Amino acid sequence: MRALYTSASGLTSQQTKLDLIANNIANINTTGYKAKNAQFAELLRSEFTQPDEFRLEGRRSDSGLRVGNGAYAAFMSQLFTQGNLQSTGSMLDLAIEGNGFFAVRIPGEDQNGEPLTAYTRTGKFQVDPINGYIVTDAGYPLMDPNGEPIQIPEELRGRPLSIAPNGDIAVQGDSGSVSIGTVNLVLVRNPEANLQAVGENLYRAVDPQRYNPLEDSLIYLVEEEDIRNAGLIRQGALEMSNVDLPQEMTELIQVQRAYQVNARSVQTVDAMMGMANNLRA
């Protein structure tokens, strides 16, 4: 039975990995998508001891024999490497060349009654025709460094706007350019561990209640002199998925082979158990 459980754990682990690879390949053309990967760990081993009275004459059996019990998917990691930038020519398509994130406001409140903030690398924005906010495709407002939504004044809506590499937004007015705000770039320390996906290419802090995003060192707003550490904004471009298709196909073949080995082990154990039952009968 132990071999059956070990093989079953291997099947479950490889199925998890297969699902992640399929999801990565399906999102290879999704703007701002970040590939996922599964990290495996070994299940607790079983340790056996052999009493001296059961030792065979002339044979030495080491005490503390350990037998593995299989593996499991211990952690699903997100790979936040830079994707390729693709030019679109749209004035509200923004790409980050660097490690920063756009900050957007999402529905809901935290335990302190403050609006929820999420982070994204997807820079496909548009103007809300009702309120004039710069929003994502899902309608989430883009935030400025003060944590407020960026809004275009009613008299300037529909006019050409430009966004500088440092995030400053200027709209062409009747007498020249009018500054309406700055796009906030947020740096996240160790995003693989400190961010969790919440859908729609949005990420939230793993424990958002333990810090103030405006003050804490886990996630901090970028000062002007450090803007290049967070990245530069490229207007008229989008960051594409960072999925490496050849790598995904290579891992797909490896997972299929591992799945076949574990499936064959289950079949072998089943046949052996059938033989044992027939012998007892």
From TrEMBL:
Q: Which residues form the Flagellar hook protein FlgE/F/G-like D1 domain?
A: 95-170
Spell out the coiled coil positions from the record: none
Residues of the Flagellar basal-body/hook protein C-terminal domain: 234-279
- Write down the InterPro entries for this protein, in alphabetical order: Flag_bb_rod_N, Flagellar_basal_body_rod_CS, Flagellar_FlgE/F/G, Flg_bb/hook_C_dom, FlgE/F/G-like, LlgE_F_G-like_D1
Look up keyword rRNA-binding and say if it applies. Answer: no
What subcellular compartments does it reside in? Bacterial flagellum basal body
Regions crossing the membrane: none
Q: Which residues form the Flagellar basal body rod protein N-terminal domain?
A: 4-34
**Is-annotated flag, keyword Acyltransferase?**
no
Entry keywords, A to Z = Bacterial flagellum, Cell projection, Cilium, Flagellum
Where is it mostly found?
A: other
User: Which superkingdom is the protein from?
Assistant: Bacteria
What's the family?
A: Belongs to the flagella basal body rod proteins family.
Checking PANTHER family in the record gives: FLAGELLAR BASAL-BODY ROD PROTEIN FLGG (PTHR30435:SF19), FLAGELLAR PROTEIN (PTHR30435)
Protein's UniProt name:
Flagellar hook-basal body protein
Question: Organism source for this protein?
Answer: Effusibacillus consociatus
Q: What is the lineage of its organism?
A: Bacteria, Bacillati, Bacillota, Bacilli, Bacillales
